[in-house]
Amino acid sequence: MARRPNRRADPGSGVGEWVFLLGVLGLVAAVVAVWGAARIAGGAAVGNNPPGAVVRLVTGKLGWPPSATWVLVAFTLILAVAAAAAGRWWVVSSRSRHWIDAKATSMATATELRVLTTRPAAEAAAAMRAETAGPGVPLAESVRTGQMLAAPWNFVQLWIMGPQSGKTSCVVVPQVCETKGPVFGTSNKRDLVDLTRGVRARRGRLWIFDPQKVVAQDPPTWWWNPLTYVTDIAKASAMASLFSAAVGSGDKGDAYFEPEGEALLAQYLLAAAVTGETLNTVYAWLNDPDNSAPVTALTAAGGNRGGPRGAGHVPAALRPARRGVWHVPQDVPVPHRPAHPELGVPHRAR
Predict the structure, then answer these.
(1) What does the pLDDT average to over 95-117?
(2) How far is CA 227 from the centre of its chain?
(3) In this structure, is residue 11 part of a structural domain?
(4) Is the pLDDT of residue 251 over 60?
(5) N or C: which end of the chain has fewer CB within 10 A?
(6) Are residues 129 and 67 in the same domain?
(7) Residue 51 lies in a domain
(8) Is a pLDDT exceeding 50 seen at residue 317?
């Protein structure tokens, strides 16, 4: 039968060593049981040397007392019950352990893990006035000490794990579900939402932002307007550069048309922001170069936000290349309806 990827045989179980040890212990127990039965039934004549007494019994130098058989049966039953109980405990406890747990002795000590235990984490949360959200992000139970560990709120976690090793189900989902405070999570698959939305919804308001319809939920009941970030030409230029970088090919591009086109997009973003419009409006303006609304909006907003560079106000020296400049912002993937209704399209409350 083929083994699952990323799963291998237990490299640290030491089965052979355990079999040898159990064999030695069984032999010692048998010798002691035989000697004990003979000693109880035969008295001092048996002696106080268990191996010697067993050798004498085997060689016939010492007679086996008849009543010793019943004592030996009782000893055997007691040892059998004890062995069965120990075996059951071993099986039950081993189910909850992984072969890697044995490596805990080579990792962080109890002293080094103290900062992650409940009391220090709670003290750190209180210092940050976040005690109502709990001591921190729940991590796991320490293999070495059995204590519950939590990462204080000011700690950064970095988990390096291979594919199909439980990053989402064993790390992210428990932390999202058990954290008492607000949680912001991102994923390119729907499993994170499916496994946590029920628990988080019981704690408070649940927001799902899914422009690409990965979760395929019902029509969104809320929206986010990225233009609320834009308050001046500097922030508009920063947003335009982000949109432009999304379609960058990695080469240097055109030294004239691309900077001019990106600057034009920044003006349009600023014009839409100062008038309370959305990215849908920017998309419409980009497809209508003769629309003077952006220029009117920027003029009305005042010159301190950046000079107008919209349609109808391109300097005469640039007009022969006007279409070349305009194609750059038209190639930028500005989100618009109906592709991404959560971006820039207000939804009426239902």
Answers:
(1) 74
(2) 31
(3) no
(4) no
(5) N
(6) no
(7) yes
(8) no
SS (H, E, C) the chain: CCCCCCCCCCCCCCHHHHHHHHHHHHHHHHHHHHHHHHHHHHHHHHCCCHHHHHHHHHHCCCCCCCCHHHHHHHHHHHHHHHHHHHHHHHHHHHHCCCHHHHHHHHCCCCCCCHHHEHHHHHHHHHHCCCHHHCCCEEEEECCCCCCEEEECCCCCCCCCCCCCCCHHHHHHHHHHHHCCCCCCCCCCCCHHHHHHHHHHHHHCCCCCCCCCCCCCCCCCCCCECHHHHCCCHHHHHHHHHHHHHCCCCCCCCCCCHHHHHHHHHHHHHHHHHHCCCCHHHHHHHHCCCCCCHHHHHHHHHCHHHCCCCCCCCCCHHHHHHHHHHHHHHHHCCCCCCCCCCCECCCCCCC
Number of structural domains (the chain) is 3
Choice between 308 and 235, residue whose per-residue pLDDT is larger: 235
pLDDT value of residue 95: 63
- Give me the domain span that covers residue 264: 226-331
> How confident is the model over 189-228, as pLDDT tens digits?
888 999 999 999 998 888 888 877 888 767 777 778 889 9
Nearest Cα residue to 155 out of 113, 199, 197, 104: 113
Question: Based on the domain organization, do 72 and 145 belong to the same domain?
Answer: no
| Same domain, yes or no: 116 and 77 | no
- 64 and 123 both lie in a single domain: no
Residues 148 and 62 in one domain: no
Residues in the chain: 350
Is 281 a member of any domain? Answer: yes
Same domain, 118 and 65: no
pTM equals: 0.53
pLDDT tier, 73 (very low <50, low <70, confident <90, very high otherwise):
confident
Residue with tokens 């939402």: 193
Query: Where is pLDDT greater, at 332 or 172?
Result: 172
CA distance 169 to 17: 35
Domain contains 50: yes
Query: Are 327 and 259 part of one and the same domain?
Result: yes
Clarify whether residues 246 and 324 are in a common domain.
yes
